[in-house]
Amino acid sequence: MSAAPSDAGEGMTRAAGSDARKASAEPVPTPEAVVPEPTPVPTWNVANILTLSRLVLVPLFVVALFIGDGADTTWRAIATGLFVVASATDHVDGWVARKYGLITDFGKIADPIADKALIGAALVGLSVLGELPWWVTIVIAVREIGVTLLRFWVIRHGVIPASRGGKAKTMTQILAIVVYLLPLPAGADPVRWALMGLAVLLTVVTGVDYLVRAVRLRAAGRRATGA
Fold first, then answer.
1. pTM of structure
2. Domain 46-225, second-level architecture
């Protein structure tokens, strides 16, 4: 008769052990992982400072270009050097921004504006000196101003990044302007005309492409907001 309480105790012990094992087998709820918010990129970073330095070099380039009415070879070489240095910052600031994650909306807007200011100053200067037909300057200027206005037109819907065609256009414009700036002999004129002709062609084609992309972006933004 005394075995019954013992059996009952052992049964209770086994039941308790079984419950403990079940409890230990059940997964322990853990708090949800907290995803840290990305660190905001400061507007005043190295890439954007390089972009602004390009704007600072523009008036210095213009002054050097017009000293001696553009005929002084020393100052012409200095003007060419300033233009090349300013143009090089366009590639450096882009590389820095991509490599170190310093891409900002300010940079996306300021970078093309700085490019247009530099190239526009060079084209107008060459036309004023009578070395480049005004129609070339006007065609390029209308395209660049139009694209800038389009950027502001669609900015509330997004920023359109530069395309490969746009980059090729900028490189061709820079190369053509450098050849025009250098005090080369008259035998280099065919090279000047060919490069500038290609620059004008790419300017027009990429301008039309940008217009199409801007219209599509605005339409998509209006659909998304139900406007």
1. 0.72
2. Up-down Bundle (1.20)
Query: What's the CA gap between 137 and 122, in Å, rounded?
Result: 9
Asked if 114 and 48 touch (Cβ cutoff 8 Å), the reply is no
In whole angstroms, what separates CA 49 from the centre of its chain?
14
- pLDDT tens-place string over residues 58-96: 999 999 999 988 889 999 999 999 999 999 887 787 777
Token representation of residue 165: 């065609």
Q: Looking at beta carbons, which pairs linking 143-149 to residues 24 or more positions away fall under 8 Å?
A: 143/203, 143/204, 143/206, 143/207, 144/116, 144/119, 144/120, 144/203, 145/116, 146/207, 146/211, 147/112, 147/207, 147/210, 148/112, 148/113, 148/116
- The tokens for 195 are 């490069």
Question: 74-78: long-range contacts at Cβ-Cβ below 8 A with a sequence spacing of 24 or more?
Answer: 76/181, 76/182, 76/183, 77/182, 77/183
The 8-class DSSP code of residue 44 comes to: S
Neighbours of 100 (CB within 10 A): 12
